Amino acid sequence: MARQTSLITFTGKIGNMIGYQRKDKHFLRSAPETVRQTENTRHAAQRFGIASRKGALIRHALYEQMDILPDGTHVNRLNRAFIRNGRNYEAALRGFRFNQHAGIDRFFATVPACSPEGLVHIPAQILPAIKDCIAFELKVITANVSFATQRIIHSSTTGMMLTPGEYFAGTTLQVDQSSTGVLVITVQVRAFRHGVPSCDRKYVAADIIAVITPERGSTFHKAAHVQQHFSYKLSEFIAADVCLHQSPVFIKRE
User: Fold this and answer.
1) What pLDDT is attached to residue 249?
2) Is residue 150 part of a domain?
3) Per-residue pLDDT at 238 exceeds 80
4) Residues 52-82: tens digit of each pLDDT
């Protein structure tokens, strides 16, 4: 293992040399003249490749809509989940945390849940108080993907602001299931501290709460890719009654 010491470093293969990165350092190794694989190692490599492509599809479907930076281990953890569970997408994805340092249970005593019919229910409860935190930003991200064609079919978001330490009346979100593919539902929460969204990994979370496959739905129709953008004024969510008397919110796709 040789370390790259030049001003210009690289990763990948050049000639018979392979460059790779470990943390903040770059190294070199020589490529083998011949590659020997048993049947088992060949199958293992194929399974890893399939899992990696599925993991990349999920990440790219959600990255565009997420406002937080996932932790440094989420790529490997997502790949391992697909390797262990194969085509059982619900077992592989449901409960996955993009930030393993904090989950949405840090912000909810009773966490949001989704029914097979696509109803995302956020129960009524007293929200926990966090020091220097003036608000929680809740964002529900939905993404329809096709693992067969490696395609992002549709994605959408909806959100609201909640006040920590106060009573939240609860709400229900209706997720549109008219698109084809596997529907992945993610809940993201960010704490606002000192008037701005926190970048501390202890105060942000993004968890996959449900995966709905076409077999569990009714009739599916193709939909175009849609993005919904929303913004908030700080004065709108500092008020104490921001989280009271919430009306049902619907995720609508054009």
Assistant:
1) 46
2) yes
3) no
4) 999 999 999 999 899 999 999 999 999 999 9
Reported as half-sphere exposure (CB side, CA atoms, 13 A), residue 125 has a value of 14
202 DSSP β-pair partners: none
**Best CA proximity match to 125, nearest among 173, 167, 162:** 167
The domain total for the chain is: 1
Domain of residue 210, residue span: 39-250
Report if residue 146 sits inside a domain.
Answer: yes
High-pLDDT (> 90) share of the chain, %: 57
To the nearest whole number, what is the mean pLDDT of the chain? 84
